[in-house]
Amino acid sequence: MKSHHPNTERKAHFYFLDALRGIAALWVVLFHAQLNERLDHLSQALPSWISAPLLEWGSLGVAIFFVLSGFVIAHSLRNANIDGLYFRQFSLRRLVRLTPPYYVSIAITIAFALLSSIVKKQPLAPMDEPLSISRLAAHLGYVQELLDFKNINDVYWTLCLEIQFYFLFCALLWLGQWSARQLQLNVNGALNPFSAQTLVFLPTAVLAALFPLGILTIPGRATVFLPLWYSFLLGAFAYWAWTRKLPLNAFRFYGAVLLVAGIAHRDGFAISSVVTAFLLLEVGRANRMQQWLSARWIQFLGKISYSLYLGHVPIIGVVFFVTQKLLGVSVLSDVVCLIASLAASIGFAAVMWHFVEKPSIALSQQVKLPRRENVLVQA
After folding, report:
1. Is the Cβ–Cβ distance between 67 and 277 less than 8 Å?
2. How many other β-carbons are positioned within 10 Å of the β-carbon of residue 153?
């Protein structure tokens, strides 16, 4: 596909985004493969400058996911005239897109946990916590983190936050457009100093930045959107800067503040978020969003990345358990386990994408969004 100006109304396919999504998913898989000392022999055999970024830093793939989500959602809502009907349809569309693969992965995770409990003759306890109806129900509603239930599969915590990001971002755009109509300010989506969108998004961006700056802190992992909201906003702001709805210098200033904070506090998540956002902007400005990293194999990884992310944890557990029973524990068995778990996870994701995710995408596209574009209101 040839590149075109970002403001054109033709549907864009961002090959570069898809590739980054695939890389992020693979990085997370590598991170989970080395947990619980499963790859200790291999890690010790490799130089630290290889083992650390390849295996130990893979959790930072989540930061890439959040930034990409912000970019994509900002793109999908670029011309939306949001009201109650639009918000409802948008929310339903996102849930229909995400939920079937998520529910299938829950069922598969529980099935593997049940098999493990039978083999090991232990009670059924995914992630070392008994499975109850209330715990399962909380997962089905994406609220297990909010209700203080342990995740059945540890990757699910990010979905709880993603859902919050989507709904909040759409709601803030709705509030900005409503405020613009009340105050007769610019409603075309541009974040100029006199726009209602600035009045809405500036306070939330500042509040979100207080967490990587270390002014506000929370114990443990984020269970609500605010501590990691800046990561999603960076993606949205990168899109707005690319499409000239946000001044480049405003985006660069916000990103620079977060980057300095990340470096000062050794916060890899913040650093990865800023680097990803700046990369998206610069690749977009270079008009390479639809050309770079368009190789078929990496696009395939991007296509199945959601299924790969959801399903790899139990697959890795089974592969390592069986392989190490057969080969013992050594550098060689670590290599075999790693290759086999990657192949099995990718194979499983491909099957899940074809039979579950692809139909859910088609079903979500049947949820129609109101086709009313923003109308410029002069101050």
Report:
1. yes
2. 23
**CA 43 remoteness from chain centre:** 27
Residue 254 CB-density burial (10 A; 0-12 exposed, 13-18 middle, 19+ buried): buried
**Rounded Cα gap, residues 311 and 289, in angstroms:** 28
Interatomic CA distance for residues 179 and 338, integer angstroms: 53
Q: What angle do CA 22, 14, 285 make, to 5 degrees?
A: 115
Q: What is the pLDDT of residues 216-243, one digit of tens each?
A: 998 888 899 999 999 999 999 999 999 9
Is the full-model pTM beyond 0.70? yes
In DSSP notation, 287-330 reads T-TTTTT--HHHHHHHHTHHHHHHHHHHHHHHHHHHHHHHH-SS
Spans of all domains in the chain = 15-365
Tens-digit pLDDT profile for residues 302-340: 999 999 999 999 999 999 999 999 999 999 999 999 999
